[in-house]
Design goal:
By secondary structure, the protein is an alpha+beta fold. It starts with 14 loop residues before the first helix and ends with a helix.
Length: 190
């Protein structure tokens, strides 16, 4: 779980994580929606997703933590007296079970981010089916992102965001964004 305004190791510096994902190790990350606004974070998200990391967005992440195979968790603490960062390791215990349950509950409520398509994969919305790029716009819209934040996150123009939202509304047969949210839930788009 990654709250906003908390520095994480950039993807390019995290060679162990990249190597693990290349070997097929599954990584899931929950990000606070406010974390999507930084340009360096967006590049790291794209790079991680290109290797298969699953990322979901929540309104607020209460604590940063890392859980490994449901066997151990690490939670960062405040810096200690000499300024060094400190962490606590939680082994199999009731506390670990609570941390795992907390992550899983947040994961179920979160909106999935989808990897950006290659430029030649971008398609228009046709016959009621949602193309991947429309699903990404919808997921970010449902997570509470502004149109500008969606454009920045997906590296597309604001006009393209507006066009895709309009296409989503047309496909759903609705006239407002609120109705689009209901239609997305009803149609299994969200």
């Amino acid at each position: 779980m990654v709250p906003p305004n908390l520095r994480v190791v950039p993807h390019r510096e995290n060679t162990a994580e990249r190597a693990s994902m290349t070997r097929g190790v599954r990584y899931r990350a929950l990000l606070d929606r406010r974390a999507l606004t930084g340009p360096e974070m967006q590049a790291d998200i794209r790079a991680s997703m290109s290797l298969g990391q699953e990322i979901r967005i929540v309104d607020a992440v209460p604590v940063k933590m890392m859980i490994v195979d449901g066997e151990i968790a690490m939670l960062p603490l405040h810096h200690d007296a000499d300024g060094s960062p400190a962490s606590i390791l939680v082994h199999r215990s009731g506390l670990l079970a609570v941390l795992v349950a907390s992550f899983e509950a947040a994961w179920e409520r979160a909106y999935p981010l989808r990897p950006a398509p290659a430029p030649d994969e971008v398609t228009e919305l046709t016959s009621g089916e949602l193309a991947d790029e429309h699903m990404r716009v919808l997921a970010l819209l449902l997570s509470g992102q502004t149109d500008q934040a969606i454009a920045t996150q997906l590296d597309i123009s604001l006009r393209t965001v507006h066009r895709r939202i309009r296409q989503l509304m047309d496909a759903a047969g609705v006239d407002s964004r609120v109705q689009l949210g209901w239609a997305a839930a009803r149609n299994g788009w969200a």
